[in-house]
Amino acid sequence: MSAVPAQSLPAPRRAPERPRWLRPAPEPGTGRAKPRLAYAIIAVAGVAVIVVAQLLLSIAITQGAYDIDHATMQQTTLDRQEQQLREDLDRVESPQYLAANAEALGMVPNSNPVFLRLSDGSVSGDPSAAVGGAAASAPLVPNALIDGVPLVTEQPAVETPKGGAAAGAASEAGAEAPVEAPVAPPAGDGLPTPATH
């Protein structure tokens, strides 16, 4: 091993002490008094600001709750209206309602269907004219959901405003009497079913 002379650390230096200056405490009532009134005003003003802020936040939250309640009630009303419209749409899309409207417009079901084979052009079945009336739609499947739903021919007429070009067009249309197709009496509330044996 090698001998390395040990070096000693220098002793830490102390800062020279400052002389302390002592002074006597002021006697009560003399000297500067702390402004206690200013602190009281600041504290009261701070409490007032906090109370007003809390009141305003409470009012805003309450108003938001009323708005949410109103929107929820409006959403419930709209959901009910949508459900009612969906039920009405299901009624008018039903096959029984379509069949009743077709009969009201003069269409009749054909009990003797005829088929055309496209591959060779042959006709299968006995072609005959369709017959209307109660005999054609005797076997019907009833549907109570379409009771009270007016048919296409029973819809109320739409009134046009009087005056202007619309009145002139209406008077010209009235001069020419439109030819109406004969309307077969409705057979009842139901869907024609095939006769099976």
Sum up the structure in keywords:
197 residues; mainly alpha; two-stranded antiparallel sheet; 40% helix
Question: What can you tell me about this protein's structure?
Answer:
This protein is mainly α. It has a domain at 36-104. Helices cover 40% and strands 4% of the residues. Strands 1-2 form a two-stranded antiparallel ribbon. Strands 3-4 form a two-stranded antiparallel sheet.
Topology:
Blueprint: H1 36-92, H2 95-104, E1 115-116, E2 123-124, E3 140-141, H3 164-175, E4 191-192
Antiparallel strand pairs: 1-2, 3-4
Please give a quick description of this structure.
The protein is mainly alpha-helical and 197 residues long. It is 40% helix and 4% strand.
